[in-house]
Each structure stands twice: as structure tokens, then as C-alpha cells.
Amino acid sequence: MPADGDSATDAGRFAEYEGDLRKAERKVAGEIDPGMRALVVAVAVLVAMLSLVLRHTGSASGIDVLTFSPDAAAERVTITSKVFVYFVAVFGIGASVLALLTRRWIIAWIALCGNAIACVAGMLAWWSRNTPGVGGVQPPSGVGIGLIIGWLAVFVLTFHWARVVWARSTYHLALEEERRKEAATRDALARSLQRKPGQDS
């Protein structure tokens, strides 16, 4: 009987702290630890920022494309180039910096998706600078160095964010498996405690 009382007391104490433990566990599960990848991501973000200052095509820089300046209009910048530059600014720079600062898994996942789309948009932007448009009008200038290094930067960001997100996703799966085992153990313990009175009688 004292042993059963001790078990009940221990269970009560654990129940008091279980809510706090689960909150702390959820907080840790929602965080990322990029480790040395943080340095690579930071450098790639700086390169992406530099790409906006350099020439995207002809005399138009990435910022010109971003702001729809007269230089961008004169170079006949297409929608694919505009989409690419916006994705570089929003996801390659903005979301990546935010993910590094907050260490939140969901923001890293958003940065991954945005940079992956930017990879495709960059390829289309490159293609559009070497392909005649409507009516066979050829763009006056080809691909600039800003577009090239910006495209390479989002490739690097996509790769490293994918590794970070995948590692955290694997951790989530392991955590869920551990939770299932813990629930099964608690159920087995509850059933064994329920059988004790019958066995004593």
C-alpha cells in the first residue's frame, strides 16, 4: 500500500510539471540550429544584397528592376526578371535574415520555399534576356553580373535551408515516435494499476 501511495504521489507531481515540460518541448521543437551553415547563409545573403546593386541587365541594376525605374523600362525588363528580383529581396534576403535571427523552423521553411521558387524565376529571367519577345523584339542587353550572382546566391540559400529544414523535420518525426512510446508506456502502467485490486481480492 505505501508503494502505491508513493506511485500516486509521484504521478501527481509529474502531472503538475507535465504542461510546462510540453511547452518547453514544443518551443525547442520549433527552433532550428543551423550551426556552421549560419555563416554560409549569412555570406549568401550578403551576395544576394550585392546582386541588387550590380547590373541586372544592360544599364539597369537589380534595384532599378525592383523600383521599375526608367533604366529598367529602357532595357525592356520582363516580368520574370521582376519576379526574380522581388523573390531575392523578400525571401533570399528578408526571410533568410529573419530565420537566422529568430531561429524559427517555420520561417526557415518559408525561406526555403521562396528561394526554391527564385531559382526557377532566375532561370526564366536569364532565358528572357536571350529570347525575342512579342513581335520578335530582341532585348537590347543580355544577362548582367547582378542576375548571375543573385541566381547563384539563391541556389546556395535553397540548398542550405533545405538541409536545415530536413534535419529539423527528422527531429520532429523522432519526437513524435518518442511521444507514441511514452503514451503506450503510460497506458500499460495504468492497466497494470487497475488490475492490482482484482489480483489482491
Topology diagram in text:
Blueprint: H1 2-29, H2 37-53, E1 55-57, E2 60-61, H3 62-67, H4 70-74, H5 79-102, H6 105-128, H7 145-200
Antiparallel strand pairs: 1-2
Helix pairs in contact: 2-5, 2-7, 5-6, 5-7, 6-7
List key phrases describing it.
2% strand, two-stranded antiparallel ribbon, transmembrane helix, transmembrane, membrane, mainly alpha, Transmembrane protein, 2 strands, 80% helix, 201 residues, 7 helices
Q: How would you characterize this protein structure?
A:
The protein has one domain. The chain is 80% helix and 2% strand. It contains seven helices and two strands; from the N terminus they run H-H-E-E-H-H-H-H-H. It has helices at residues 2-29, 37-53, 62-67, 70-74, 79-102, 105-128, 145-200, and strands at residues 55-57, 60-61. Helix 6 runs antiparallel to helix 7. The radius of gyration is 27 Å and the shape is elongated. The relative contact order is 0.13. Keywords: Membrane, Transmembrane, Transmembrane helix. Residues 182-201 are annotated as: Disordered. This is Transmembrane protein.
